Amino acid sequence: MDPMQNATGGTVGNVGSGMLSNQEDDTTAGTAATADDPKQNLNQVINSIQKTLGLLHQLYLTVSSFNTASQLPLLQRLNNLVLELDNMAKLSEKCNIQVPMEVLRLIDDGKNPDEFTRDVLNSCIAKNQVTKGKTDAFKSLRKHLLEELEQAFPDEVESYREIRAISAAESRRLAQAQASLPNGDVQVKNEL
């Protein structure tokens, strides 16, 4: 094999700053089998971003030591950058990633985007605690009302409890019927 070719058959050339650049389009290698795989699409975009960053670094090195002899390599690197940015735009169309505006604002402000995740998680925990408190308050109210009603109307409360037991059994039966498999078997939920 020619030393100027890599294992995939793409031509590898020396681009001036001691770095090697693969001239083959990296995205065509495995796209036929996994064209609709979101994870694969995301990985391709990430690889394109990394390649673009490498091209920008090479461009920076070329510009910082520019002389008339380095004009052709500069133009080649600019063309490679444009091609890679175009490739990145095409790949990104396959990805459906939605980033909240708050995250972008945090990044613009120079803050860590993990702060957004932490704040959202803390907000969810606080809302969950409020909801749990309300649920516990209603359970306590129901228990207290049943105790008071049982003292005042013992026969009616007994009838109510029988109706509730029948209703609960019917609900369980319906839930089991919905969990049955097409062959008639019942899907059992394992409890740890």
Report on this model:
Among the domains are: 38-97; 113-178. It has helices at 38-64, 71-92, 101-108, 114-152, 154-178; strands at residues 12-14, 20-22. It has 192 residues and is mainly α. The chain has a two-stranded antiparallel ribbon with strand order 1-2. Belongs to the Mediator complex subunit 10 family. Its main location: nucleus.
N-C termini distance: 59 Å
Helix content: 55-70%
> The biggest beta sheet, please?
2 strands, antiparallel
Question: Could you tell me the number of beta strands?
Answer: 2
As a whole number of angstroms, the C-alpha radius of gyration is 32 Å
Portion in beta strands: under 5%
Number of helices: 5
Low-confidence stretches: 1-34
**Element-by-element helix/strand order:** EEHHHHH
Indicate the structural class.
mainly alpha
- In what order do the strands lie side by side in the largest sheet? 1-2
Mean pLDDT: 80
Query: Quick one: overall form?
Result: elongated
Quick take:
This protein is 63% helix and 3% strand. With 192 residues, the protein is mostly helical.
Layout of secondary structure:
Layout: E1 12-14, E2 20-22, H1 38-64, H2 71-92, H3 101-108, H4 114-152, H5 154-178
Region (Disordered): 1-36
Organism: Rhizophora mucronata (Asiatic mangrove)
Family: Belongs to the Mediator complex subunit 10 family.
List keywords for this structure.
2 strands; single chain; disordered N terminus
